[in-house]
């Protein structure tokens, strides 16, 4: 039985076990659609919708899903919600749908969603599963918006289409190109590694000081 | 039917719009399997095989079945891909147990490989015919293999270099990937 | 392992994939309390429910999506055929222009042109869309021209993934775009700015984005070359129903 509290289930996915930055899941969308903050938000929103609905539904029906076919069942559920998200996005936000293109359909193979179902939703009640999904979704959004912001500000000088630096800013175009995606995530990971190392060093000096 | 020529489709998928370095597809194996050149090569070849089969199946589905129900596309694609991967896994297990063990978990993980589903979707969106689709798959697969092998070669050399502690691991792989992607940008405009 | 699974329908095949993925080297099957029938039935029911849900949402969203697509196309056609009152779509059926498709044919399989007519029902322009490789990826262009003189009346980039800041000037740089609205003669020739001889078919290319510019020019030239023999055979009279500018919802 799970011994974590509901709050822990929720908060865990936001930073400590951030799906993109720590667990390295869902990289394809994280790199592909983060060339602008608007796209990052749209992708996060769609993924959030799919993951929350899937988690709740699978958690509710977990008793009916035999162990042997569980992954196929999860994929079926996820694919259904992705199809729905695709249709709804195309109807109500056609411009965003065009920008995201094929990557909406690729939410189906986002290891992050499947992973949550396998490790959590299939073993917990719907409310907890929802918390877990929302927490992970928020973590995903944070990671994507961070990357999107970084790339858009440096690559076009604007944030959400609003120009920040005025017309004299020479944009670092590579940031909105594929190479920029790799570099951005790489540098963010490096930065996080540095922070982790500093934290560890600090903790060590504290314990040394105490002993 | 799209107006693009076969050569343009092939070259574009393999080099100019390389599936991994430009389109961000197939990243899980890229990060995971690219430590050794030989494994990378074999993974790439397995991918080409699955990709071609997927292209054919996707064309088949699109032409004959999905006409009536285009909204069932995503579900039917993923089911077909899962089945194909299963078949390939069984075939590899029988024909080359060594390879099977080497690829380990990455073989069944091809089901969730963005590249395979991505190929089916792109092929549909661009309206490729049968031959165009297969060419696209071969080009994409070769591109994937190329990226894998390049990354593996670099990583093998990097192992002997003096890399600062924090940079080791995924951060470094991503930065190498970024540099490779920049290098491949040089191919743009060749067509 | 379960050899019988090989004979069952493909959904069962998935079972093996995921078992090997998550169970790793475990080969012995779990105790068989769950019958194969139950496995198949569960997935089948799930599949049917999923299908129903999708069909429902599709019924709701499809009209919205179709309307939007039709509107976008209309806007594009009227933009490249300025002054046109209405337009009809003609499909290329057996090397001839036809206002209707053969029975049961799929619309997307056929190439088409959009014939604009003035208030009297006479042909006053033709719009064609075409996509070919640019610098980065395929560029989709729609352009309008006078079928009697071959001069262009306008051009619009429908889809482009060209390099931001450079190639994307093919739709952001109005100096470039406006040239296509100034009635250049065809086939067009791209020239570097300042190097032109003032010929009526010259288009100044964008500095730093010559390949993208050339691609746009080439796309239009190729489309014209492809359609000229067909259009020269004559454009049929207006069919009974035509799309009118005033009818835009």
Keywords:
heterotrimer, B: 191 residues, mainly alpha, 0% strand, globular, C: 249 residues, alpha+beta, 7-stranded antiparallel sheet, two-stranded parallel sheet, 5 helices, 21% strand
Give an account of the 3D structure:
- The complex is a heterotrimer of chains A (211), B (191) and C (249).
- By secondary structure, chain A is an all-alpha fold.
- Chain A has eight helices and two strands.
- Chain A has a two-stranded antiparallel ribbon with strand order 1-2.
- Chain B contains eight helices and no strands.
- The mean pLDDT of chain B is 81.
- Chain C has a domain of 167 residues.
- Chain C contains five helices and nine strands, in the order ααββββββααββαβ.
- Chain C is globular and about 80 Å long.
- The N terminus of chain C is likely disordered.
- Chains A and B meet through helix 2, helix 4 and helix 8 of A and helix 2, helix 4, helix 6 and helix 8 of B.
- What percentage of amino acids of chain B are in beta strands? under 5%
Strand content of chain C: 15-25%
* Low-pLDDT windows of residues of chain B: none
Separation of termini of chain B? 20 Å
Largest beta-sheet details of chain C? 7 strands, antiparallel
Radius of gyration of chain B equals 17 Å
Overall geometric form of chain B: globular
Classify the secondary structure makeup of chain C into a structural class: alpha+beta
Tell me, briefly, the overall form of chain C: globular
> Quick one: how many beta strands of chain B?
0
Largest interface between protein chains, with number of residues from each side = A-B, 38 and 40 residues
Largest sheet of chain B: none
Counted up, domains of chain B total 1
Oligomer: heterotrimer
The tally of helices of chain C reads 5
What class would the helix/strand composition of chain B place it in? Answer: mainly alpha
What is the helical fraction of chain C, as a range of percent? Answer: 25-40%
Radius of gyration of chain C: 27 Å
Helical content of chain B stands at: 55-70%
The separation of the N and C termini of chain C measures 62 Å
Query: Stretches of chain C where pLDDT falls below 50 for ≥5 residues?
Result: 1-32
């Amino acid at each position: 039985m799970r011994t974590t509290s509901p709050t822990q289930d929720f908060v865990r996915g936001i930073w400590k076990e951030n799906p993109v930055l720590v667990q390295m899941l869902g990289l394809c969308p994280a790199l592909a659609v983060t060339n602008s903050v608007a796209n990052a938000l749209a992708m996060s929103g769609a993924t959030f919708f799919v993951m929350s609905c899937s988690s709740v539904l699978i958690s509710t029906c977990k008793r009916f899903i035999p162990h042997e076919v569980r992954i196929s069942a999860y994929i079926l559920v996820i694919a259904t919600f992705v199809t729905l998200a695709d249709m709804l996005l195309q109807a109500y936000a056609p411009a965003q749908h065009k920008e995201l293109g094929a990557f909406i359909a690729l939410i189906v193979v986002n290891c992050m969603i499947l992973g949550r179902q396998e490790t959590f939703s299939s073993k917990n009640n719907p409310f907890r599963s929802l918390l877990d999904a929302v927490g992970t979704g928020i973590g995903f959004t944070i990671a994507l918006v961070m990357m999107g912001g970084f790339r858009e500000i440096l690559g076009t000088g604007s944030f959400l289409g609003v120009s920040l630096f005025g017309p004299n800013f020479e944009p670092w175009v590579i940031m909105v190109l594929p190479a920029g995606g790799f570099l951005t995530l790489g540098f963010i990971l490096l930065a996080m590694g540095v922070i982790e190392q500093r934290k560890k060093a600090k903790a060590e000096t504290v314990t040394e000081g105490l002993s | 039917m799209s107006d693009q020529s076969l050569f343009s489709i092939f070259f574009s998928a393999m080099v100019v719009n390389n599936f991994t370095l430009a389109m961000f597809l197939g990243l899980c194996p890229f990060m995971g399997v690219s430590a050794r050149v030989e494994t990378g090569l074999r993974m790439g070849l397995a991918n080409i095989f699955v990709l071609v089969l997927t292209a054919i199946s996707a064309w088949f589905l699109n032409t004959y079945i999905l006409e009536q129900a285009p909204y069932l596309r995503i579900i039917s694609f993923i089911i077909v891909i899962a089945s194909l991967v299963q078949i390939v896994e069984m075939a590899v297990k029988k024909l080359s147990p060594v390879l099977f063990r080497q690829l380990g978990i990455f073989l069944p993980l091809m089901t969730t490989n963005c590249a395979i589903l991505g190929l089916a979707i792109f092929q549909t969106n661009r309206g490729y015919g049968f031959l165009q689709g297969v060419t696209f798959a071969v080009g994409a697969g070769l591109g994937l293999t190329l990226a894998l092998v390049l990354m593996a070669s670099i990583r093998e050399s990097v192992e002997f270099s003096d890399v600062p502690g924090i940079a080791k691991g995924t951060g470094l792989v991503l930065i190498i990937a970024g540099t490779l992607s920049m290098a491949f940008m040089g191919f743009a405009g060749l067509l | 392992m379960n050899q019988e699974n090989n004979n069952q329908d493909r959904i069962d095949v998935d079972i093996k994939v995921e078992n090997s993925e998550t169970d790793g080297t475990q080969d012995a099957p779990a105790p068989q309390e769950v019958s194969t029938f139950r496995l198949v039935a569960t997935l089948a029911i799930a599949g049917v429910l999923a299908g129903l849900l999708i069909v429902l949402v599709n019924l709701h969203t499809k009209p919205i999506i179709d309307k939007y697509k039709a509107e976008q196309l209309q806007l594009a056609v009227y933009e490249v055929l300025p002054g046109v009152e209405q337009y009809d779509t003609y499909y290329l059926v057996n090397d001839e222009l036809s206002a209707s498709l053969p029975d049961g044919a799929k619309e997307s399989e056929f190439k088409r042109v959009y014939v604009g007519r003035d208030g009297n029902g006479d042909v006053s322009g033709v719009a064609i869309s075409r996509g070919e490789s640019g610098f980065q990826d395929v560029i989709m262009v729609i352009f309008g021209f006078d079928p009697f003189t071959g001069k262009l009346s306008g051009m619009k980039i429908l889809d482009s993934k060209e390099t931001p800041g450079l190639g994307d000037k093919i739709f952001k740089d109005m100096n470039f775009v406006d040239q296509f609205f100034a009635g250049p003669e065809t086939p067009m020739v791209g020239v570097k700015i300042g190097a032109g001889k003032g010929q009526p078919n010259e288009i100044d290319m964008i500095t730093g984005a010559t390949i993208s510019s050339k691609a746009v020019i080439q796309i239009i030239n190729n489309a014209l070359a492809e359609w000229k023999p067909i259009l020269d055979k004559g454009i049929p009279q207006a069919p009974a129903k035509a799309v009118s500018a005033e009818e835009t919802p």
